[in-house]
Amino acid sequence: MCLDEDTTSMSQMTSMLHDASRNTKYETAITKAIQAFIQEHGRPPVVLDIGQGTGLLSMLAVRAGAEDVYGAELYEPLAQIAREVTTLNCGDRIKVIAKRSTDLRVGESGDLPRRADMCINEIYDSALLGEGCLPAFRHALANLLVDKPVMVPAGAEVHGVLLSSKFLRSRHDISTAEFSEGVPVARNPRAAACRGGRRALPLQGAELEDAVNLSEPFHALSFRFGESFPEEGCRSRKVCVPGRKQAMES
């Protein structure tokens, strides 16, 4: 096995392929959406698969009755796997394109012969938005999809909760840090105002053993992926809680 195959086999893609519950829900949603499209329009849909991976969702779409599927997969080793797997299972009904979806073009000399009727995808992280789904959808709606396309998933919500965690606080405050016992880290007097870089700390809420919820879970954002999105920017919401807010988990 080559290095790229080793890397692929160790990636999150493997666990996703083995997630039977997730895959069954995707199959049900894709099948219902395609059957509804055929009933309404009298023809099968052309489907765009963003973040095609190994081609699983594309094959589910073909099995459900899609006319053709065009998939964008940036990572070439995965794209090559998808080509081999989809060709064996679906012949030439699925086209695998080793590009970002935002680099795809429609037209005779482009990647898609015409705009797609439907978009299927799995480009979400555990906090929903971290893998850049919104920019991909904005581009697809403007350049790759018909007006009012079918989207699977059709939408999503973000919920949050305010919490307190000494561990998370320690990631932002080194005022008590020491090089060794009794030897503190020297800091500029203005350093307390520095909150560090913008890099996120990847962890799950269940891993925070010292976390204490300071609020009830609340609804933060809603999205309908086949429609226009709010302009980029910050959103705020007031939540009254006792104690001191140190982090928000979404």
CATH topology of the largest domain: Rossmann fold
Range of strand content: 15-25%
If you average the pLDDT, what whole number results? 85
Report the strand count: 11
InterPro entries: Arg_MeTrfase, SAM-dependent_MTases_sf
GO molecular function: histone methyltransferase activity; protein-arginine N-methyltransferase activity
Organism: Ectocarpus siliculosus (Brown alga)
Keywords: Methyltransferase, S-adenosyl-L-methionine, Transferase
Any overview of this molecule?
This protein is an alpha/beta fold and 250 residues long. The protein has 2 domains: 3-153, Vaccinia Virus protein VP39 (Rossmann fold, 3-Layer(aba) Sandwich), CATH 3.40.50; 157-178 and 204-249, no CATH class. The protein has 7 helices and 11 strands. It has a 5-stranded parallel β-sheet with strand order 3-2-1-4-5, with helices on both faces. The protein is elongated and about 75 Å long.
